[in-house]
Amino acid sequence: MKIQISGKDTQKAIVFDSGTLISFSMNGTTDLIEKLKGIFKGKFLITSEVKKEVIDTPLRIKKFELEALKIKQLLDDKVLEMPSSLGIADPEITIKTNEILNMANSFFIGNGREIHLLDSGESSCLALSRILTEKRIKNILAVDERTTRMIVEKHENLKEFLEKKLHVKIKINHDSLKFFHGFKIVRSAELAYVAYKKGLVKIRNENVLDALLYAMKFKGAAISGEEIEEMKRLK
Description:
Elements: E1 12-16, H1 18-26, H2 30-40, E2 43-45, H3 48-56, H4 65-76, H5 90-104, E3 108-110, E4 113-114, H6 120-134, E5 138-142, H7 146-153, H8 155-166, E6 170-172, H9 174-179, E7 185-186, H10 188-197, H11 208-218, H12 225-233
Parallel strand pairs: 1-2, 1-5, 5-7
Antiparallel strand pairs: 3-4, 3-6
Helix pairs in contact: 1-4, 3-6, 5-6, 7-8, 10-11, 11-12
């Protein structure tokens, strides 16, 4: 695993999906996002769809209000920014989001029916990533959601998983398959690992990396215990 965070090139970005931000917020570690931004020397971006999911809607729900306020503070402080900061307008993202939704949700066909895989939030992140790439802005997606990652990285594993879950034989739409090549993805646990390696975690204890990675896992990061143990061995 190699994640490049620091560097001089300002034309680069990390696009954050909702789940990754929620993992940091629920673990009380949003300060690590701010510290990572300080060494990244690029943009930390969220789409309008993600903003709705992590700020606008939960601010109206008492159970989730505090987490939403933590993330809103990152946006107010310009740690997180909207795509407009790079001259990318919402209508452009919406067009690409709808294209990705159509592609993703026709990716697998079972019993003659298309299988729904993605919703608008994660699709908007993929859309923004594709737009950034087209503009030659280096970028990576911060996504904890397993299905999105598997579409991009391990579609055969996703096919096998869905066949077992749905008890149907699934066919792959290969036209859709080609569309999802080229995306780069990192999880909240991997960002937390980078924060640890860069000395951004101020808790001084030999077990802090273990605690940090498992906290991310238990708050939604799609990472196995085996992967965590492998990451710990890299320290």
